[in-house]
Amino acid sequence: xxxxxxxxxxxxxxxxxxxxxxxxxxxxxxxxxxxxxxxxxxxxxxxxxxxxxxxxxxxxxxxxxxxxxxxxxxxxxxxxxxxxxxxxxxxxxxxxxxxxxxxxxxxxxxxxxxxxxxxxxxxxxxxxxxxxxxxxxxxxxxxxxxxxxxxxxxxxxxxxxxxxxxxxxxxxxxxxxxxxxxxxxxxxxxxxxxxxxxxxxxxxxxxxxxxxxxxxxxxxxxxxxxxxxxxxxxxxxxxxxxxxxxxxxxxxxxxxxxxxxxxxxxxxxxxxxxxxxxxxxxxxxxxxxxxxxxxx
Amino acid sequence: xxxxxxxxxxxxxxxxxxxxxxxxxxxxxxxxxxxxxxxxxxxxxxxxxxxxxxxxxxxxxxxxxxxxxxxxxxxxxxxxxxxxxxxxxxxxxxxxxxxxxxxxxxxxxxxxxxxxxxxxxxxxxxxxxxxxxxxxxxxxxxxxxxxxxxxxxxxxxxxxxxxxxxxxxxxxxxxxxxxxxxxxxxxxxxxxxxxxxxxxxxxxxxxxxxxxxxxxxxxxxxxxxxxxxxxxxxxxxxxxxxxxxxxxxxxxxxxxxxxxxxxxxxxxxxxx
Lengths: 296, 272
Prior knowledge:
The complex is a heterodimer. By secondary structure, chain A is mainly α. Chain A contains 14 helices and no strands. Chain A is globular. By secondary structure, chain B is mainly alpha-helical. Chain B folds into 2 domains: 51-227, Orthogonal Bundle (MetI-like fold); 229-272. Helix content of chain B is 79%, strand content 0%. Chain B is built from 11 helices and no strands. Chain B has helices spanning 6-28, 46-53, 55-88, 95-107, 110-123, 130-154, 158-166, 171-200, 203-209, 216-224, 230-271. The radius of gyration of chain B is 23 Å and the shape is globular. The mean pLDDT of chain B is 88. Chains A and B meet through helix 1, helix 2, helix 4, helix 5 and helix 6 of A and helix 1, helix 3, helix 4, helix 5 and helix 6 of B. Chain A: It comes from Jhaorihella thermophila. Chain A: The chain crosses the membrane at residues 12-30, 77-101, 113-134, 165-186, 207-229, 265-284. Chain A: It is a multi-pass membrane protein.
């Protein structure tokens, strides 16, 4: 009996607040735009709510999904989100790897402090970390002031409200997620393997490519997924650092919902985003399972 | 290898500079006299004064704190239960679905979680406000708690629990007297994680809040959208200071408890 309660409480909670809402999104994405309930119904009572849901059940079709393929905006936004997420994941990897490598080679007694320094930004508000770049990248911001002062440029660059700013924002905010798994694999790496490679005639660089990188593969893969998956649906970074030309699907969904108040289309956008995410999530899960089995 | 090569020194220096310079600049300019966030005009703490006089910010901070305390506590209870079920529950119908529902919210884009919960709340006619934000935050942070707690439960020596049961404890007593004290550090870090996630969340709160409740991230977001402002810098500085003190304290506590444990182990080894 006690066991039943123990299972039932979290189970029912997740069913009611995770699975059921998702089924509702699916239903609404299949319903007609014209049938959309008004965005604001503070007087909405329970019976009208059920009536609303029953209406959605009445007329299900793929009209909204057809609409997504017809209007350029959506597929361009999906493609551009995929591209931005991919490119910024690669950039994050390039920035994170040397840091993780340096941490793993640092004297033993420094490592806990270095770890803490990487984790600290993770506990700091995401919004604040994104905001901190607004003052740096703006027209009269520090980066422009610095570059003007050194004489590299003669006119301030427009960085804020461009895709460049979005890349910087993603690399900056997701950097700890890439550093930590790579550091974890590099930390366990047996230095004598590299020494052996060098003794056997490898140059430092080829020992790095032939020994260190393959042995840290699991950390690299885990880090890439941890950056890529949330970056794909990112909303805060493109809306604060990006410009009007920055197309990311999280922002499109938000605007579809809050500005255009088109709930069925917003739901359809969400369903397609999730279908796209299923591929990397399943791959990530497989990779984690393989890794756990390898450790056994 | 005790000394860093120059390459590692440079990459560590540049890496940590990249991580910390934006925050340092943010903090410095919270003490700026001028309204401009990029031109230094002398030291002043007036933005902190303005912040504390701004009722809208204070209200939002209060809402955020309430939501965070309730949702993280609820999430810790539910998440610990879920972790226990996952690790100790054995086989039961729908176990795969259960573990799927625990892991899926971790990778679900916030916009989708927010949208789906909002549509649910509207569907069942629930008035949106602090209560609905608490429900939403509890749902996603209980999954984080359960991941943290179950990773501790997996490494836990089950014979300790069995010994307690053999010695006459009821299962509930065994849990309270043996299991809970051992997994307590994981439960506490789960709570802290849930608390931080709730404090931090903008997207899900924006969907589920409705017009009656505004959280601090929502307030920050709406004012930052119009451009940088020294008041937000002041607020950010306070939040960074709290987090820094918290993280350093937590790491000192774990450090000393690890040292204590090691000492105890050494003494036990010497005694035997």
